[in-house]
Amino acid sequence: MKSRVAGTKRVFIGTKLQWISIVFVLPALLLNLIFYIYPLVQSLILSFYDVPMLGDKMFTGLENYRQLFQDAAFWKALRFTFLYILIVTPPLFLLGLALALLVNARLPLITFFRSVYFLPVIISMVSCSLVWLWAYNDVYGLVNYYLMELHLIDKPVVWMAEAGTSLPAITFMVTWKVAGFTMIILLSALQSIPSDIYEASKIDGANRWKTILYITLPILKPAIVLALVVSVIGSALAFEQFVIMTQGGPSNSTTTIVNLIYDTSFKYYKFGYGSAMTIVLLLILLLLSAIQVKVLSRN
Protein backbone atom coordinates (compact mmCIF):
# COMPACT_ATOMS: atom_id res chain seq x y z
CA MET A 1 0.00 0.00 0.00
CA LYS A 2 2.79 2.38 0.97
CA SER A 3 4.69 1.66 -2.25
CA ARG A 4 1.53 2.39 -4.27
CA VAL A 5 1.06 5.73 -2.49
CA ALA A 6 4.75 6.59 -3.01
CA GLY A 7 4.46 5.71 -6.69
CA THR A 8 1.36 7.91 -7.03
CA LYS A 9 3.21 10.80 -5.38
CA ARG A 10 6.16 10.42 -7.75
CA VAL A 11 3.84 10.46 -10.77
CA PHE A 12 2.06 13.53 -9.40
CA ILE A 13 5.33 15.37 -8.72
CA GLY A 14 6.68 14.42 -12.15
CA THR A 15 3.49 15.68 -13.85
CA LYS A 16 3.63 18.90 -11.82
CA LEU A 17 7.25 19.50 -12.82
CA GLN A 18 6.36 18.94 -16.48
CA TRP A 19 3.59 21.55 -16.29
CA ILE A 20 5.92 23.99 -14.52
CA SER A 21 8.51 23.46 -17.28
CA ILE A 22 5.87 24.11 -19.93
CA VAL A 23 4.82 27.35 -18.17
CA PHE A 24 8.42 28.60 -18.20
CA VAL A 25 8.95 27.67 -21.85
CA LEU A 26 5.58 29.02 -23.02
CA PRO A 27 6.56 32.75 -23.28
CA ALA A 28 9.58 31.96 -25.48
CA LEU A 29 7.47 29.56 -27.53
CA LEU A 30 4.77 32.19 -28.07
CA LEU A 31 7.34 34.80 -29.10
CA ASN A 32 8.85 32.38 -31.61
CA LEU A 33 5.43 31.52 -33.00
CA ILE A 34 4.44 35.18 -33.37
CA PHE A 35 7.69 36.66 -34.67
CA TYR A 36 9.28 33.71 -36.53
CA ILE A 37 6.95 30.83 -37.38
CA TYR A 38 3.90 32.89 -38.36
CA PRO A 39 5.87 35.31 -40.63
CA LEU A 40 7.65 32.33 -42.20
CA VAL A 41 4.35 30.61 -43.01
CA GLN A 42 2.92 33.87 -44.37
CA SER A 43 6.01 34.40 -46.55
CA LEU A 44 5.68 30.89 -47.93
CA ILE A 45 2.02 31.51 -48.79
CA LEU A 46 2.68 34.95 -50.32
CA SER A 47 5.45 33.54 -52.50
CA PHE A 48 2.77 31.83 -54.60
CA TYR A 49 0.81 35.06 -55.14
CA ASP A 50 1.08 38.34 -56.98
CA VAL A 51 0.42 40.86 -54.20
CA PRO A 52 -0.19 44.40 -55.51
CA MET A 53 -0.08 47.46 -53.28
CA LEU A 54 -3.78 48.02 -53.94
CA GLY A 55 -6.33 45.39 -54.83
CA ASP A 56 -6.65 41.69 -54.18
CA LYS A 57 -3.77 39.27 -54.41
CA MET A 58 -3.80 36.80 -57.29
CA PHE A 59 -2.54 33.21 -57.16
CA THR A 60 0.32 32.69 -59.64
CA GLY A 61 1.71 29.33 -58.53
CA LEU A 62 5.45 28.99 -59.17
CA GLU A 63 5.66 32.07 -61.40
CA ASN A 64 7.59 34.10 -58.80
CA TYR A 65 10.17 31.32 -58.49
CA ARG A 66 10.46 30.93 -62.27
CA GLN A 67 11.03 34.67 -62.61
CA LEU A 68 13.46 34.63 -59.71
CA PHE A 69 15.85 32.14 -61.29
CA GLN A 70 15.94 34.30 -64.44
CA ASP A 71 16.58 37.54 -62.53
CA ALA A 72 20.12 38.83 -63.09
CA ALA A 73 19.87 41.17 -60.08
CA PHE A 74 19.08 38.22 -57.79
CA TRP A 75 22.09 36.22 -58.97
CA LYS A 76 24.36 39.26 -58.69
CA ALA A 77 23.24 39.90 -55.11
CA LEU A 78 23.59 36.20 -54.28
CA ARG A 79 27.15 36.07 -55.69
CA PHE A 80 28.14 39.13 -53.67
CA THR A 81 26.61 37.65 -50.52
CA PHE A 82 28.61 34.42 -50.98
CA LEU A 83 31.76 36.48 -51.61
CA TYR A 84 31.15 38.40 -48.41
CA ILE A 85 30.64 35.15 -46.48
CA LEU A 86 33.91 33.71 -47.81
CA ILE A 87 35.84 36.89 -46.96
CA VAL A 88 34.43 37.68 -43.51
CA THR A 89 34.06 34.20 -41.97
CA PRO A 90 37.78 33.17 -41.69
CA PRO A 91 39.07 36.32 -39.90
CA LEU A 92 35.94 36.43 -37.74
CA PHE A 93 36.42 32.85 -36.57
CA LEU A 94 40.22 32.99 -36.21
CA LEU A 95 40.13 36.22 -34.19
CA GLY A 96 37.36 34.82 -31.99
CA LEU A 97 39.38 31.63 -31.42
CA ALA A 98 42.55 33.60 -30.63
CA LEU A 99 40.68 35.80 -28.13
CA ALA A 100 39.06 32.75 -26.51
CA LEU A 101 42.44 31.08 -26.02
CA LEU A 102 43.88 34.34 -24.71
CA VAL A 103 41.19 35.13 -22.13
CA ASN A 104 40.92 31.50 -21.00
CA ALA A 105 44.14 31.95 -19.01
CA ARG A 106 43.96 32.74 -15.31
CA LEU A 107 45.64 36.13 -15.25
CA PRO A 108 45.06 39.37 -13.34
CA LEU A 109 42.28 41.57 -14.79
CA ILE A 110 41.25 38.78 -17.17
CA THR A 111 37.55 39.46 -16.47
CA PHE A 112 38.10 43.08 -17.48
CA PHE A 113 39.68 42.07 -20.78
CA ARG A 114 36.86 39.60 -21.49
CA SER A 115 34.39 42.45 -21.05
CA VAL A 116 36.42 44.77 -23.28
CA TYR A 117 36.63 42.22 -26.10
CA PHE A 118 32.91 41.46 -25.85
CA LEU A 119 31.82 45.11 -25.60
CA PRO A 120 31.51 45.75 -29.38
CA VAL A 121 28.98 42.89 -29.62
CA ILE A 122 26.38 44.78 -27.57
CA ILE A 123 26.65 47.87 -29.78
CA SER A 124 24.06 47.89 -32.54
CA MET A 125 25.23 47.32 -36.10
CA VAL A 126 23.65 50.65 -37.10
CA SER A 127 25.71 52.55 -34.53
CA CYS A 128 28.90 50.72 -35.50
CA SER A 129 28.28 51.39 -39.18
CA LEU A 130 27.77 55.12 -38.59
CA VAL A 131 30.89 55.43 -36.41
CA TRP A 132 33.09 53.49 -38.84
CA LEU A 133 31.66 55.38 -41.81
CA TRP A 134 32.94 58.52 -40.15
CA ALA A 135 36.30 56.83 -39.42
CA TYR A 136 36.61 55.83 -43.10
CA ASN A 137 35.80 59.32 -44.38
CA ASP A 138 38.30 60.38 -47.03
CA VAL A 139 38.56 63.99 -45.76
CA TYR A 140 38.54 63.88 -41.95
CA GLY A 141 38.44 60.16 -41.15
CA LEU A 142 40.84 58.68 -38.61
CA VAL A 143 41.76 55.68 -40.78
CA ASN A 144 43.20 57.76 -43.62
CA TYR A 145 44.84 60.14 -41.15
CA TYR A 146 46.82 57.43 -39.36
CA LEU A 147 47.65 55.54 -42.55
CA MET A 148 49.13 58.74 -44.01
CA GLU A 149 50.97 59.50 -40.77
CA LEU A 150 52.55 56.06 -40.95
CA HIS A 151 53.37 56.67 -44.66
CA LEU A 152 51.37 53.61 -45.70
CA ILE A 153 49.38 55.65 -48.24
CA ASP A 154 50.23 58.83 -50.14
CA LYS A 155 46.73 60.28 -50.42
CA PRO A 156 43.35 59.65 -48.76
CA VAL A 157 41.48 56.56 -49.89
CA VAL A 158 37.79 56.88 -50.74
CA TRP A 159 36.93 53.63 -49.00
CA MET A 160 33.26 53.43 -49.92
CA ALA A 161 33.68 54.39 -53.57
CA GLU A 162 33.96 50.85 -54.94
CA ALA A 163 33.60 47.24 -53.86
CA GLY A 164 37.37 46.64 -54.01
CA THR A 165 37.93 48.95 -51.03
CA SER A 166 34.53 48.99 -49.31
CA LEU A 167 34.32 45.23 -48.87
CA PRO A 168 37.65 44.88 -46.97
CA ALA A 169 36.78 47.98 -44.92
CA ILE A 170 33.38 46.60 -43.92
CA THR A 171 34.91 43.17 -43.26
CA PHE A 172 37.37 44.75 -40.83
CA MET A 173 34.55 46.59 -39.05
CA VAL A 174 32.33 43.50 -38.79
CA THR A 175 35.25 41.36 -37.54
CA TRP A 176 35.98 43.94 -34.83
CA LYS A 177 32.34 44.02 -33.80
CA VAL A 178 31.33 40.32 -33.92
CA ALA A 179 34.53 38.46 -32.96
CA GLY A 180 33.61 38.81 -29.28
CA PHE A 181 30.49 36.71 -29.83
CA THR A 182 32.56 33.89 -31.36
CA MET A 183 34.96 34.29 -28.46
CA ILE A 184 32.16 33.69 -25.92
CA ILE A 185 30.96 30.54 -27.71
CA LEU A 186 34.45 29.04 -27.80
CA LEU A 187 35.39 30.27 -24.33
CA SER A 188 32.41 28.50 -22.76
CA ALA A 189 33.54 25.27 -24.42
CA LEU A 190 37.16 25.82 -23.37
CA GLN A 191 36.21 26.22 -19.73
CA SER A 192 34.29 22.94 -19.80
CA ILE A 193 37.45 20.96 -20.67
CA PRO A 194 38.72 19.11 -17.56
CA SER A 195 42.14 20.27 -16.36
CA ASP A 196 43.21 16.63 -15.92
CA ILE A 197 43.51 16.28 -19.69
CA TYR A 198 46.03 19.13 -19.91
CA GLU A 199 47.98 17.81 -16.94
CA ALA A 200 48.22 14.39 -18.61
CA SER A 201 49.44 15.99 -21.84
CA LYS A 202 52.18 17.86 -19.94
CA ILE A 203 53.32 14.61 -18.36
CA ASP A 204 53.51 13.08 -21.85
CA GLY A 205 55.73 15.97 -22.95
CA ALA A 206 53.30 17.85 -25.21
CA ASN A 207 54.13 21.53 -25.69
CA ARG A 208 51.51 24.32 -25.86
CA TRP A 209 50.99 24.18 -29.63
CA LYS A 210 50.61 20.39 -29.70
CA THR A 211 48.16 20.64 -26.81
CA ILE A 212 46.04 23.14 -28.75
CA LEU A 213 46.26 21.17 -31.99
CA TYR A 214 45.66 17.63 -30.73
CA ILE A 215 43.61 18.19 -27.57
CA THR A 216 41.90 21.57 -27.46
CA LEU A 217 40.68 21.85 -31.06
CA PRO A 218 39.27 18.28 -31.30
CA ILE A 219 37.37 18.74 -28.04
CA LEU A 220 36.13 22.14 -29.25
CA LYS A 221 34.72 20.68 -32.48
CA PRO A 222 31.01 21.01 -31.51
CA ALA A 223 31.55 24.62 -30.42
CA ILE A 224 33.54 25.32 -33.59
CA VAL A 225 30.68 23.95 -35.69
CA LEU A 226 28.21 26.18 -33.83
CA ALA A 227 30.42 29.25 -34.17
CA LEU A 228 30.94 28.73 -37.91
CA VAL A 229 27.25 28.07 -38.59
CA VAL A 230 26.26 31.20 -36.68
CA SER A 231 28.93 33.25 -38.49
CA VAL A 232 27.83 32.05 -41.93
CA ILE A 233 24.15 32.67 -41.22
CA GLY A 234 24.88 36.11 -39.77
CA SER A 235 27.03 37.02 -42.78
CA ALA A 236 24.37 35.80 -45.22
CA LEU A 237 21.83 38.06 -43.51
CA ALA A 238 24.08 41.14 -43.68
CA PHE A 239 21.99 44.25 -44.23
CA GLU A 240 22.55 47.33 -42.06
CA GLN A 241 26.26 47.80 -42.68
CA PHE A 242 25.89 47.83 -46.46
CA VAL A 243 22.76 49.99 -46.47
CA ILE A 244 24.42 52.61 -44.27
CA MET A 245 27.99 52.51 -45.52
CA THR A 246 27.64 51.86 -49.27
CA GLN A 247 23.88 52.07 -50.03
CA GLY A 248 24.45 48.99 -52.17
CA GLY A 249 26.60 50.89 -54.63
CA PRO A 250 28.28 51.65 -56.80
CA SER A 251 26.03 50.14 -59.49
CA ASN A 252 24.57 47.64 -56.99
CA SER A 253 27.98 45.99 -56.65
CA THR A 254 27.62 45.74 -52.85
CA THR A 255 23.94 44.83 -52.70
CA THR A 256 23.38 41.80 -50.48
CA ILE A 257 20.52 39.38 -50.94
CA VAL A 258 18.71 40.74 -47.85
CA ASN A 259 19.10 44.27 -49.19
CA LEU A 260 17.55 43.15 -52.48
CA ILE A 261 14.66 41.46 -50.63
CA TYR A 262 14.02 44.68 -48.70
CA ASP A 263 14.08 46.85 -51.83
CA THR A 264 11.85 44.44 -53.75
CA SER A 265 9.27 44.21 -50.97
CA PHE A 266 9.19 47.70 -49.47
CA LYS A 267 10.43 49.99 -52.24
CA TYR A 268 8.86 48.35 -55.28
CA TYR A 269 5.98 46.73 -53.32
CA LYS A 270 6.44 43.29 -54.90
CA PHE A 271 5.57 41.40 -51.75
CA GLY A 272 5.03 38.05 -53.45
CA TYR A 273 8.30 38.25 -55.34
CA GLY A 274 10.17 39.36 -52.20
CA SER A 275 8.63 36.44 -50.28
CA ALA A 276 9.88 34.02 -52.92
CA MET A 277 13.40 35.44 -52.47
CA THR A 278 13.07 34.97 -48.72
CA ILE A 279 12.08 31.30 -49.06
CA VAL A 280 14.95 30.61 -51.46
CA LEU A 281 17.40 32.30 -49.07
CA LEU A 282 16.06 30.20 -46.20
CA LEU A 283 16.59 27.00 -48.21
CA ILE A 284 20.13 28.07 -49.11
CA LEU A 285 20.95 28.75 -45.45
CA LEU A 286 19.54 25.39 -44.41
CA LEU A 287 21.66 23.68 -47.06
CA LEU A 288 24.81 25.58 -46.05
CA SER A 289 24.24 24.78 -42.37
CA ALA A 290 23.65 21.10 -43.12
CA ILE A 291 26.85 20.92 -45.21
CA GLN A 292 28.88 22.63 -42.49
CA VAL A 293 27.57 20.34 -39.76
CA LYS A 294 28.14 17.25 -41.94
CA VAL A 295 31.70 18.19 -42.93
CA LEU A 296 32.87 19.54 -39.59
CA SER A 297 31.31 16.77 -37.52
CA ARG A 298 33.35 14.02 -39.17
CA ASN A 299 35.71 12.22 -36.82
TrEMBL record:
Question: What CDD domains does this protein's entry cite?
Answer: TM_PBP2 (cd06261)
State the PROSITE patterns in the record.
ABC_TM1
Output this protein's name.
Answer: Sugar ABC transporter permease
Q: Which GO terms describe its biological process?
A: transmembrane transport
Per UniProt, what is the membrane topology?
Multi-pass membrane protein
Give the Gene3D superfamilies listed for this entry: MetI-like (1.10.3720.10)
Residue stretches making up the ABC transmembrane type-1 domain: 78-292
